[in-house]
Amino acid sequence: MRKPLTDFSDEPIYNMKAVEQQTGISAATLRAWERRYTLVEPKRTSSGYRLYSDRDVALLLWVRHQMSEGLTISRVVAMLETMRLNHEPIWVDMDESAPNSFSAEAPNPPASFVQPLYQALINLDTERADDIVEQGFALYTLTTVCMEIIVPTLIEIGEAMHNGQISISTEHFASTYLRGRLYGLFRVYPQMSDMPMIMVGCAPTEHHEIGALIFALMLRQHGYNVIYLGQDVPVNDFVETALNEHPAMVCMSANNETAALLLREMQSSLNKAGPAAPIFCYGGRAFDTDPALRQAVPGHYLGSDPREAINLVKNLLRNHRDHTHGHLP
Ligand code: B12
């Protein structure tokens, strides 16, 4: 059942313990959010204890739900401010049940999610995997969930398949599930059409797309207008699309040498757009493990860690903008 927030009573009735139980959010987190974001402003008893209303609890449940979709607390707060400014109603889902544990102080490190997630996936147990991923998103940022939970789980799956401990079908199930979760997050981050456009895709023949997908997702989280093209994109076709759409940057991923070498002509083909040609960047396991490939393929290698690649992108775009503006009459 969904109700607008304003339908909930604002009479102060619950103490902190009750709110902890109803929302699954720890007292320490509630205090931190109040201090940092004035997310809710509980009334106080005469002896100074906080008292929350049904409306406060409903708002906290809404916030927790947004975080389980992958948003950070600061993003949720910004979203809330925009909604309030635009007088948009906040709908609260009353069927949301509180998780057993939820705390911004992170009682369980991200690494502790890897084994349970691996186990759930090799048992083909989507429901359990959903629970684990959602709990991860409730506790950690998108970047942490991707880099410290999803990537290590995939590596574990890869090793188990390589050693014959799990079947190819099980590996396909696991990677399809995780890819699906990541795709789903694309809808959570709105497309910023007035921001610099970055096209991301995989080199021709390349079917390993999760690295590119995570990178694309992080770029979108940082506010770029990301167009994600997926696996195995033919170079000529990619170049043609890029020349029509005028992205500021094109990023490709390659996992093996053959796919990486197919990107050799990319930069020179993109240069047909003249001084406003998009910057060409690449990443992926092939380039991470073989420095000679970085020499062979003209363009910017963004490194093996998408978190650091985001900073490089920012710098490259800034330099490019200064440079192209320098060429303006
Ligand atoms: C899932 C998976 C698949 C899935 C991919 C599903 C999909 N749609 O993405 C499928 C089933 C399609 C697949 C197929 C194959 N796979 Co496979 N696969 C894997 C597995 C288990 C996980 C890969 C993954 O997603 N990793 C997680 C991502 C996030 O990490 P990553 O790709 O290493 O990328 C990191 C960085 O490079 C960076 N990054 C990646 N791209 C980009 C791009 C940019 C711009 C930036 C900045 C950064 C960046 O981000 C990541 C963060 O650390 C790995 C095991 C492993 N150890 O990785 C094997 C693995 C990669 N596969 C392997 C092989 C051999 C194959 C096949 C050849 C198998 C076969 N015989 O058919 C085919 C090739 C298909 C093809 N044409 O591409 C080998 C590769 C060995 C090698 N060195 O070449 C591995 C290592 C398994 C193994 N141990 O043997 N695979």
| Mean pLDDT over all positions | 87
Instruction: List SSEs in N-to-C order.
Output: EHHEEHHEHHHHEHEHEHHEHHEH
Top CATH class of the largest domain:
Alpha Beta
State the end-to-end CA separation.
60 Å
How does the overall form come out from the CA principal axes? globular
Enumerate the strands of the largest sheet in spatial order, edge to edge or round the barrel.
Answer: 6-5-7-8-9
Instruction: Count the E strands.
Output: 9
List keywords for this structure.
3 domains, Rossmann fold, single chain, five-stranded parallel β-sheet, binds cobalamin, 329 residues, two-stranded antiparallel sheet, Multidrug-efflux Transporter Regulator, Chain: A, Domain 2, 53% helix, alpha/beta, Methyltransferase, Methionine Synthase (B12-binding Domains), Chain A, domain 1
